[in-house]
Amino acid sequence: MSLTNLRLQEHLREAITWVDKGFVSKEEFEVLKYKMFLEDKNQEDEVSKLAAANALLKGENARLKEDMQMGEDEHVDCSRDGIEYSRNREGTVYNDEFEVVGKWCYSLCIIEFTNEGAKKHFEATGRILPH
Fold it and tell me: How far, rounded to the nearest angstrom, does the alpha carbon of residue 56 sit from its chain's CA centroid?
């Protein structure tokens, strides 16, 4: 149980005592309980966002380390949808015929296809290119 949940339980127990002694009405108690629940929910959401951002940064750090260890003419696999792609240190993405098809977006870990690269990708996967 998290420290926040323990504090919430402590506050709720205190509030129940106040209701029992008549210092606080049941309606006020319910409002307090609801506000505390929302506060806890918002804190959980913030923790989740921070954890996701941390995971993204860890992944980005690992990719940057990998890129730093790459030689000038080495390539990293960044295949997508069963189609072979590779990228160089600068983030230029190539298909298996060594044609430039786009740039690697480090923050999202996706290929930003050129128009021609997107057309070839959709043709290779058999999907219809959106207009």
Answer: 6
